[in-house]
Hints:
Helices cover 45% and strands 21% of the residues.
Amino acid sequence: IPRNTIFFGQKISDFLATENGDQAVIDAIRQKLSVPVHYYAKMDLSAIKQIIDNVDGIDFEVPMDMIYDDPHQNLHINLKKGNHNLNGEEVCQLLQFRQGYTEGDLSRIQLHQQFIKEFIKQKFNKENIDKAPELFKIISNNIVTTYPISNLEQDMKTISAINSNNIVFETIPGKNAIHNGIAVYEIDLNDNIELADKSNESK
C-alpha cells in the first residue's frame, strides 16, 4: 500500500501522526479494504544497517544515480547507478531515496520489493541462519510489533527453503494523482472489491 494512498480524505501516512497512529492505520486498512490485519511491525532503519553489515552486504543493481542532501534530517544520499555490493549505510540510502522514479512511489515500491527478493535469495542460507541469535537481538532492539519474535527463527528456516523466483508481491490497484497540489495515490475501488473477495476466500 503506497504511503501516500488516500484513505478517508487523507494520506495513510498521515494517520501515523494521530493519537494511537499504529492502530489508526490498521483500522483504516480494515475499513477501506475489508481485509484482516493480524500483525503489524515498525523497524528502525538502524536495524537494517546492522543486519546488512552483519551478513557482509548485498549485491544490488542501483537503477539510477541517487543524489540527495537534507541537512535538516541529516540525510545524505550518494549512490551511483550500477551493480554494487552495498553495505548497511548504502542500503539505507537506497531505501530512503524518493526522487526521480518514473511512476513515483509505485516505482519506489517495486525497487523495495526487488530488494527484499534479492535479500532472501542471497542471504537466507545456512551461514546466516546460524547467526540467528545475533540477528534476533538486532531486530528485537529496533522493532515495535505485535508479532511473536520467538517465531522468527523458524520463519527464517521456512523462508530459506522457498525459491525466491516464486515470491510474488502485489500492490493495491490504483493510480497516481494530485490533490490540492500534493501527490497522492487513488485506489481503484472496483479492483478493491475483487481483492477483498479473494482475501475472504483465503481465510
